[in-house]
Amino acid sequence: MGETRQAVAPSVRDACPLSPNHAGGQLRHFAPIIFGLSIIALWWVVADMGILPTYFLPHPRAVWDTLWSGIADGYLLSAARETLLAAGLGCLAATIIGLPLGYSIARSPIVAATLGPYLAASQAIPAVALAPLLVVWIGYGLVPITVLCTIIVMFPVVISTTLGIRELDQDIVDAARLDGAGRLDLVRSIELPLAAPAILAGIRTGFTLSVTGAVVGEMVMGGDGLGAALSRGQGSTANVAQLFAVIAILIILAVGIYLLLTYVEKITRKGLS
Q: Among residues 154, 136, 156, 157, which one has the least CA distance to residue 146?
């Protein structure tokens, strides 16, 4: 009887809508929204009280007016599209290059020993230092910005692919080999699908970094994206409200991309379970 009670209790507790687990799960979905609204409310109070000068912290109403004006005339939307295009192309190129590279590092100790140190060293070079070199080598416009994004995203994609392949259950791989799976079939049907959650986590992190790389590239190499909008807001007469409006667009893009790729990752995990 005691054993039955112990077995039933957890299931009842999990199913109860008022249980701590259930309440915590519901709160987890709304926590980011509550936190964001709290920050905006605090910002509004500080601006209304005049604690900080407007050139340091503009009023949320001024930022909203600038943001809405930029969206209404299409300027900020067009800039966001340009930045997303460069970031997306860079992330795509990094994925195409990083997947086979990460797989090779995972499966070949020689490749890992040869390329590993250089991949780590590439992360020591800041994007601001690379951008002027790309201008000299390639020029201005979309292509050098895409190359910069590719370089930035490459490392997390390679590392996540390497870890995903190395952590596979070797018994599953050996069983597939015993069933007659060749190398290509093994990669396509077993290894990459099982490593997909780890790979998607790396791409999710990389895409967020890619947006940052696109903005830095646009500030240095020109263009019509959000980086150019930030540069214009930094002019001799700094438009702080415009800077905050562009930053708000960047935050929205980063959060949206993160949530979308997180959802894709969850769907992939459910499909594999």
A: 154
pLDDT at residue number 123: 78
Reported pTM: 0.77
- Residue 4, pLDDT > 60, answer no
pLDDT tens sequence across 44-96: 888 888 888 877 888 889 889 988 988 888 888 899 999 999 999 999 999 99
Half-sphere exposure of 163 (CA within 13 A, CB side): 12
Domains, the chain, in order of start with CATH, read 2-49 (no CATH), 60-272 (1.10.3720.10)
Q: Which residue has the tokens 């015993």?
A: 178
Residue 136 has pLDDT above 70, yes or no: yes
Alpha-carbon span 97 to 114, nearest angstrom: 17
pLDDT band at 103 (very low <50, low <70, confident <90, very high): very high
CB atoms within 10 A of CB 136: 8
